[in-house]
């Protein structure tokens, strides 16, 4: 069997991807007939005005939401028409999500937060802890392993959220405005961390943001307007 990592197949392939939200008697367009290929190893920065569809697109790619129409293949899995169990497994194994609001579990400590997706995926607890400790070391947070998650600074919380997003070795990280609640120093540290994971672990990154902090590390920049891409979807 060919190694999927070694193929040139794009990690994201969206064709006519559409998400229309029903609202009252009418509808609202989230994403409108979007075509997009992202190659493995890219660091894509996605911009666009508020309401242009960035979060909608990321939610579709993470299988947190279902398209109204179109085809979507992510990390070699066609997402349309899958039973919920398959989509849960996909979310645990193939993608890592990072949000503006960190979404850590406040009653758990740092290492427990990071290990949670590994334990939910049925991985060995000692192995998960080993990987979490290695990530903490790389993130410069070794001293915070037993710290309650709600007693961290914002920058630390986001670094922990990134460790949690990559504990299961996802091929793709989807980051929705991850620097939105951070000052520029902490925001830059978060971008540098994502860039390192992209470079060193070859994790593909799709980052939705209003900020210019990631412009320098992007391999490609895309712009959404009214749910459609306004820059060329393939190449640069
Ligand atoms: N659950 C929903 N029901 C109805 N409309 C929605 C829903 N979620 C999003 N929308 C609408 O879809 C459009 C795209 O929203 P989305 O959140 O994807 O934009 P965005 O680019 O992420 O914006 P921002 O930069 O403010 O985060 C907007 O017009 C929004 O009002
Ligand atoms: Mg958004």
What does this structure look like?
- With 236 residues, the chain is of the alpha/beta class.
- It has one domain (40-64, 83-229): Rossmann fold (3-Layer(aba) Sandwich), CATH 3.40.50.300.
- Helices cover 31% and strands 26% of the residues.
- The chain has six helices and ten strands.
- Strands 6-7-8-3-9-10 form a six-stranded mixed β-sheet, sandwiched between helices. A four-stranded antiparallel β-sheet has the order 2-1-4-5, covered by helices on one side.
- The protein starts with 11 loop residues before the first strand and ends in a 7-residue tail after the last strand.
- The mean pLDDT is 93.
- It binds adenosine-5'-triphosphate (ATP) and magnesium ion.
Number of contiguous helices: 6
CATH class: Alpha Beta
How much helix, percentage-wise, in residues?
Answer: 25-40%
Order of helices and strands: EEEHEEHEHHHEHEEE
CATH architecture: 3-Layer(aba) Sandwich
What structural class should be given to the helix and strand makeup? alpha/beta
Flag low-confidence runs.
Answer: none
Counting DSSP E segments of at least 2 residues, the number of strands comes to: 10
- Please compute the radius of gyration using only Cα atoms: 17 Å
Strand order of the largest sheet: 6-7-8-3-9-10
Looking at CATH, the homologous superfamily is P-loop containing nucleotide triphosphate hydrolases
Name the beta content range: 25-35%
Q: What is the CATH topology?
A: Rossmann fold
Integer average pLDDT: 93
Reported for the largest beta sheet, the result is: 6 strands, mixed
Shape: globular
Ligand roster: adenosine-5'-triphosphate, magnesium ion
Number of domains: 1
Straight-line distance between termini: 32 Å
